[in-house]
Amino acid sequence: MGTYVILMKLTEGGIQDIKNAPARVDAGIKALEAMGGKLIAFYMVMGEYDYVGIGEAPNDETVAAFLLGLGLQGNVRTTTLKAFSRDEFAEIVKKLP
């Protein structure tokens, strides 16, 4: 499974409904699991982003579908990074000419 870092910013609607955000996070975790993925960590953060999620999914298409579903709800906008473990990074570097 691939690892993904999801950076999230609350929309105007998301901040106006912040009291329901914990329930939305739980629903998002269940949706990701139903798609074959897994949430590794979730944080509320201070700074440019409001939340950071780290998850695993079987492929990029699964993550794309999950993120489109999040976007449809209108509470967050996402920026997603595909992450490579230290071992995966070492294997990539070995392939350099």
The major β-sheet equals: 4 strands, antiparallel
Return the domain count: 1
CATH topology: Alpha-Beta Plaits
The CATH class turns out to be Alpha Beta
Low-confidence stretches: none
Name the structural class: alpha+beta
Give me the CATH architecture, please.
2-Layer Sandwich
**CATH level-four homologous superfamily name:** Lrp/AsnC effector binding domain/regulation of amino acid metabolism (RAM) domain
Mean pLDDT: 97
How are the strands ordered across the major sheet? 2-3-1-4
- Cα end-to-end separation: 27 Å
Proportion in β-strands: 25-35%
Pattern of helices and strands: EHHEEHEH
Q: What proportion of the residues is helical, as a percent range?
A: 40-55%
CA radius of gyration: 15 Å
Number of strands: 4
Total helical elements:
4
Tell me the overall shape.
elongated
How are the elements arranged and paired?
Elements: E1 2-10, H1 12-16, H2 21-34, E2 38-44, E3 51-57, H3 60-73, E4 76-83, H4 86-94
Provide structural commentary:
By secondary structure, the protein is α+β, with helices and mostly antiparallel strands. The protein has a single domain (2-94), classed as Lrp/AsnC effector binding domain/regulation of amino acid metabolism (RAM) domain (Alpha-Beta Plaits), CATH 3.30.70. It has helices spanning 12-16, 21-34, 60-73, 86-94, and strands spanning 2-10, 38-44, 51-57, 76-83. Strands 2-3-1-4 form a four-stranded antiparallel sheet. A hairpin with a 6-residue loop joins strand 2 (38-44) and strand 3. The longest helix has 14 residues, at 21-34. 15% of the residues are buried.
